[in-house]
Amino acid sequence: LSSVPLQILFFLNVVYFVFYFLATLLMIIYKSQVLSYPDGNLAVDLVLLFIMIFVEAIRLYLGSKGNLREEKVPMGISLALTCGSVMLSVYFLVWQTYVLRADIIINAILLIIYCLESVLDIIAIAAFAR
């Protein structure tokens, strides 16, 4: 009953998130050098990026293991953590101190991945509930 498309999407999310993290970190460094950050905003952006790493790691681990073991609880926790990841991604898309076009593109791709994962998560949880 485990979902192969969901497992593939989890793997692609791991690969994409490594790119996303490095690109976002480099853009924050670039923006801090070229633009003047208001006091404390640079620290907030960096702290939220590092929080996003931990949330994403836990979310992907629980989602992947829950899918492979066909367990509803880890899948449900992963789905709930997806909401937190979406909020962090929206922060970097909308509320970040400076938003570049590259920020918009990489966050839009990440949000699309989250939407696809959420749909497949719900379908997998429903299949496991039978």
From TrEMBL:
InterPro entries: Uncharacterised_TM-17. The chain crosses the membrane at residues 6-30, 42-62, 74-94, 106-129. It is a multi-pass membrane protein. It comes from the Eukaryota. It is found in: Cell projection, Cilium; Membrane. Keywords: Cell projection, Membrane, Transmembrane, Transmembrane helix. Signal peptide: none annotated. Its main location: other. The keyword Repeat does not apply. This is TMM80 protein. The gene is Tmem80.
